[in-house]
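ingest -> validate -> predict -> emit
validate: passed (alphabet ok, no gaps, 300 aa)
predict: started
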Amino acid sequence: MVEVVEEIEYEALSPNAGLGVNMAAGALAGITEHAVMFPVDSIKTRMQVFATSPAAVYTGVGNAFTRISSTEGMRALWRGVSSVIMGAGPAHAVHFGAYELVKEFAGGNVEGASNQWIATSLAGASATIASDALMNPFDVIKQRMQLHKSEFRSAVVCARTVYRNEGLGAFYVSYPTTLTMTVPFTAVQFTVYEQLKTLLNPGGAYSPATHIVAGGLSGAVAGAVTTPLDVAKTILQTRGTSADPEIRHVRGLADAFRIIWQRDGLRGFARGLSPRVLTFMPSNALCWLSYEFFKAAIRD
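emit:
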């Protein structure tokens, strides 16, 4: 007697897998995404700051990778990854859990509904507000550790030092800017992803290639559009380590934009564009592929 094994179709399963499933899948996907692409993210951070040392000025991604690995060692590109792993799991759990919850509440899971894109955008924005509140302190620690000649080798030591010297506000000085950036980023990302997924796979059958293509392209578009805000966020989050008095006392988004414009003109708002897009294309593709996989695997 031959046992017939029924193949699971990810998209054929009920879109409401339960909050716990979505949160667990999101946590695993988030850790996977951030850990794999961390070296490129480190390069992006270094390219976005206004460095005072010529040794910390890079002409491109390849130049940065070569110089950092040859002068500081490959481990320097992974400095701060512990902070991301500690924060990414809980933050992505909240992110995907909130996304599915709001999407269902807004009617985004109703087949053929005319307001699906509105529900998706609302769900994406809501998910970001919740997850960024949790992730912002970890992101500050990460970027402090990623900088050229950073004094920090431990996320815990970095957190203690920042809190002692700058207070609790240092962990959230960039939160308004982060929301200004990530709410439209996530709304664009989720909307483009859902539209491309429907376009490329209208039948809803299991298709990893669809998740990879839709996830990668949605990440690239959203990342490129929000790069100017990301440059400002990096300046705000690393201000405490700067030797430049003006940057050290930068107050908010408008202040950061003024400094960028005065020092580097229009091109200053595109600092780190290449590594940002290079980070988000594969990381988003991997994140969505992992999310859809873990969601189906846990649900099964």
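The CA atoms of residues 176 and 253 lie 8 Å apart.
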